[in-house]
Amino acid sequence: MTDTPAMSPTETYRANLAERRLTFQSCRACGQTWMPARSECPNCLSPEFEWCEAGGRATIVSWVVFHVAFDPRYEDRLPYNVALVDLEEGARMVTNIIDLPDGEDVIGRTVTLEFEHDLERELPRFRLAD
Amino acid sequence: MASRAVIAGIGQTAFGRLPGRTTESLNIEACRKALEDAAIEKDRVDGLLVKVPTSRVEMMYGQKLAEAMGMQPRFGGVFDQGGASNISMIGIAAMAIEAGQCEIALVSLADNPKTGSRAAYEKPWGDAADLGWSSVVAGYALIARRYLHEFPNAEELFRDIAIAARAHGAENPNAQLRKPLDTATYEAANWIVEPLRRDDCCLISDGAAAVVVMSEARAKELDVRAPVPVLGIGQGNSSSDVTLRADLTKTRADVSAATAFAMAGLEPRDMDCAQIYDCFTVTVAMTLEAYGFGSFDALHELGRAGGFGVSGDLPINTSGGLLSETGMPGMQLVLEGVRQMRGDSVNQVENARKCVVSNQGGIMHTHSTLILGQ
C-alpha cells in the first residue's frame, strides 16, 4: 500500500476502514509507527511514510464507561465503553470493547479486532481474546 | 530575577450563574476590583494579559478587552495554554516588567460556560468520534482508570480530596457550591464517565478573577497596601493528546514545579498550604505526587488523617477549589494563595508564609506553578 497524493492521510485511513482493513502509518526514515493519521512523522518529522495493515491483536491501556452521552448519537447506548489499546505493531488507538465484562480490571488484557457495521460505516472494535 | 515581582491587587466577580453578562463585562469587573484593591489608577496600567474564554474562542480577544477598558497597553494580548494560562501569564508579566516592556500589568480571566456554551468541554474527538469518544471528562477518566490500576485504593484519596475542597467551600461565602460532602454521599453519587463520579468533577461556572502585577520596588513606591511577592514561576507542557501519552499517569507537572521551586530556592516541605488545580480529583492526586509532596501511599494516609484540611499537615484548596468555589479554570486559586499570604482567607491557615499554586489545562496538556510568599 502506498500513499495516494490526492487523498489526505485521514481520507486514506477511512477508505481502508471501509474495506475492513485497519491501517496505521510507518515512517520510512526512522521506522516510527503511529495513529491517528497525519502527514509527518512525530518522531523525526519526515513526510515519507507508508501504510501498514494491523494484524488485529492489541493490549488494553485504559478504558472508561460513559454514563452521560455528550454525543446524542450515543444517548440510547448508555452505558457504553471507550478504550485505548496498543496494537501489537506499536501504534495506539481509541476503540470500543465488545462485551466488556462489568467490574473487572481489563488493563493489560489482550484483545482482537472485530469490525462492526455501525453508523453507516465499518468501525474497528475489539473483543477480549482470553 | 534581579527584581522580584509582586501581586499588588486581586479582584473577582460573584461565581455561579451570571446571566446577561459578557466575558468582557466580567473581566472588567474583576480588573476594576483588582485595581481598587491595589489602589492603582487604571491609567497607570501598561500591560494587559488575558486568557481567552472557553465559552467563545475568538481571535484578538486581548485587544477587544483592552478596547472595552479604554486601554492601549504597551504590552498585551492572549496567551493560550488553557487553564495553565493564568500562572503562565503572571510569569510573562513579571518577565516583561523585568525586561522594561511594561511596568504595571493586569492579568485576567473570565468565562461563562454556565450560561453560555460549554461545547469546548463536551466536544467529540477526531475520527474516534463515531466510537462515542467525546468530552474532557472522559479524557480525565482514562487517566483516572489507569491511576486506579496502579493504586487500587486511590478512590479513597479522590474522595478525601473532594471532601476537603467541599468543606472549605462550605465556609466560603463566595463559593458557588456550599454543601459539604461526606463519604456516603460521595459513594452514592452517579457516575459521569466511570471511574469519575459526580463529586470528582469540577463545577461549571460563570465568573472572572484578575490580579495586578508590578515590581516590588514599584509597589513600595506606590505604597501598595498588601503586596504578595512572587517567589517562583514554572511551566511544563505534556502537549500530547491524552490518548497518545506514553504514560497516562505522568505529566510535565514535575518539571513545572522543579522550575518554580528552584527559582524560589524552596522545597515542597517549606509550603504552608497548596492551591492545586482540581478540575477532577485525580488531577490533585497526580499533581501533589509530581510536586514532591509524597508518594501515593503517603498522600493516601494524609487524606485519611484529614491532612488536607485547614489545620492539617497539607491544607489544600482552602477556598474550595474548582470543585466547590468555582469551576472557573484557575485564577481563583491564585487569589486564594494571595489571601493566605495576606492572612485574610476565610479558611486562614495559621502562620501561613509560603503557598504553592498549580494551574493546568487541556487534558493535562499544560501545567504551570506559582510560589507565593512573605
UniProtKB/TrEMBL annotation, chain A:
Residues 17-50 form the ChsH2 rubredoxin-like zinc ribbon domain. It holds the Pfam family OB_ChsH2_C. Residues 51-115 form the ChsH2 C-terminal OB-fold domain. Gene3D superfamilies: 6.10.30.10. PANTHER family: BLR3430 PROTEIN. This is OB-fold protein. It comes from Palleronia aestuarii.
From TrEMBL, chain B:
InterPro entries: Thiolase (IPR002155), Thiolase-like (IPR016039), Thiolase_C_2 (IPR055140). Keywords: Transferase. The keyword Hydrolase does not apply. Gene3D superfamilies: 3.40.47.10. Residues 234-373 form the Thiolase C-terminal domain. It holds the Pfam family Thiolase_C_1. GO terms for molecular function: acetyl-CoA C-acyltransferase activity. The keyword Nucleotidyltransferase does not apply. CDD domains: SCP-x_thiolase. This is Acetyl-CoA acetyltransferase. It comes from Palleronia aestuarii.
